[in-house]
């Protein structure tokens, strides 16, 4: 951990920039909306911690009804367990026996499950579980169009499920059924069609697994862009949305059911930055650059201003182009909305949580850099 850029009670104008800030009112409305949807739909909510990497946020989600957390990395799981989370699904494949031993050690005090798409992974996880005398939950990942991890839906999923069921120390739970490519498809109807196709593949796999005498207790998946489809499907049993608490430019670019920009959730995560140079007319330089946000999904947007745009970034500088006549005095603070919240979060040590113009809380990003 490095320098903390604010103290509780500070005015927003006193925050040392660049800083990662959370608008608590918007953040809490986002959490409540997803929790209320899950409750009404009768589906479990297991938010994805790869978005926030923060035990404090995980516990808030659990207090609001979430059954636990998803994560992608063993290091994330360790940080969450250390922070008090007691039910974690690693929605990823793990092969390295050292990592699996770390997960097995966590399973002494925490419910731990993970994904599989190969026999070798099963053998290694079974070995680790037996060494630590624990049981690990096991889900077969099926490829729903991501072309990343996952077996072909149907018979291949059933064969792997049967192999898992016979492996000491593992308990077959069901399917990891996440259609990640659908999350950012622009048209609402096209996202719906993608999840309908995914549902067909899920049913094919459930039926094949049933023929092997096994039952899928858990069908987990869904994301911020498609949660309404999986949530109301009566097929998925668990949602693993992550970005809904913060939102970002990538999600803002898709459409809602009304054809308008996606407005299911509010932007609550920002990079607070300060104008440090105005040497050239029509241009302002701010102190947040590539070490404060990522660009793989595009440049961040200047929040609540239509007359200025972030047009370039280098390591420690951002370049803002100003419309004619617009002036940003030196020392002005502005908010940038990240284009991709997950990797942006991983560049910071703390969330500076603000409400009514003042810092209300400081949350450590406890799993920052925990990517092993």
From TrEMBL:
Keyword field contains Ribosomal protein: no
Entry keywords, A to Z: Lyase
GO biological process: D-serine catabolic process
Keyword Lyase included in the entry's annotation: yes
Database matches in InterPro entries: Ala_racemase_N (IPR001608), D-amino_acid_metab_enzyme (IPR051466), D-ser_dehydrat-like_dom (IPR026956), D-ser_dehydrat-like_sf (IPR042208), PLP-binding_barrel (IPR029066)
SMART domains noted in UniProt: D-ser_dehydrat
Species this chain originates from: Verminephrobacter eiseniae (strain EF01-2)
Protein name: D-3-hydroxyaspartate aldolase
SUPFAM superfamilies, per the entry: PLP-binding barrel
Pfam family, one: Ala_racemase_N
Similarity comment text for this entry: Belongs to the DSD1 family.
MF (Gene Ontology): D-serine ammonia-lyase activity
EC number(s) on file: 4.1.3.-
Domain D-serine dehydratase-like: 268-355
């Amino acid at each position: 951990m490095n320098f903390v850029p604010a103290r509780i009670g500070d005015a927003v104008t006193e925050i040392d920039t660049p800083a990662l800030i959370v608008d608590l009112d918007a953040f809490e409305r986002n959490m409540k909306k997803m929790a209320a949807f899950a409750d009404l739909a009768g589906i479990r909510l297991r938010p994805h911690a790869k978005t926030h990497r923060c035990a404090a946020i995980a516990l808030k989600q659990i207090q609001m009804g979430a059954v636990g957390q998803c994560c992608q990395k063993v290091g994330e799981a360790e940080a969450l367990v250390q922070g008090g989370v007691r039910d974690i699904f690693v929605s990823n494949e793990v092969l390295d026996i050292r990592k699996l031993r770390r997960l097995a050690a966590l399973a002494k005090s925490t419910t731990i499950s993970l994904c599989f798409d190969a026999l070798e992974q099963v053998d290694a996880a079974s070995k680790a579980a037996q060494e630590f005398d624990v049981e690990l939950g096991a889900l077969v990942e099926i490829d729903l169009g991501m072309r990343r991890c996952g077996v072909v839906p149907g018979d291949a999923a059933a064969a792997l499920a049967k192999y898992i069921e016979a492996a000491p120390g593992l308990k077959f739970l069901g399917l990891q059924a996440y259609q990640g490519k659908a999350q950012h498809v622009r048209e609402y109807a096209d996202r719906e069609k993608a999840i309908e196709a995914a549902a067909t593949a899920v049913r094919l796999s459930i039926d094949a697994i049933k023929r092997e005498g096994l039952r899928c207790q858990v069908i987990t998946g869904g994301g911020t862009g498609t949660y309404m489809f999986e949530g109301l499907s009566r097929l998925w049993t668990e949602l693993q949305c992550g970005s809904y608490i913060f939102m970002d430019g990538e999600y803002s670019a898709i459409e809602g059911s009304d054809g308008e920009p996606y407005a299911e959730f509010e932007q609550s995560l920002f990079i607070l930055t300060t104008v440090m140079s105005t040497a050239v007319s029509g241009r302002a330089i701010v102190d947040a650059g590539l070490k404060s946000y990522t660009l793989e999904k595009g440049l961040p947007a200047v929040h609540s201003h239509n007359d200025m745009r972030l047009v370039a970034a280098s390591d420690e500088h951002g370049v803002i182009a100003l419309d004619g006549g617009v002036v940003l005095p030196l020392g002005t603070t502005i908010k940038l909305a990240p284009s991709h919240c997950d990797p942006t979060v991983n560049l910071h040590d703390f969330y500076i949580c603000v409400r009514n113009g003042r810092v209300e809380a400081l949350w450590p990003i406890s799993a920052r850099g925990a990517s092993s």
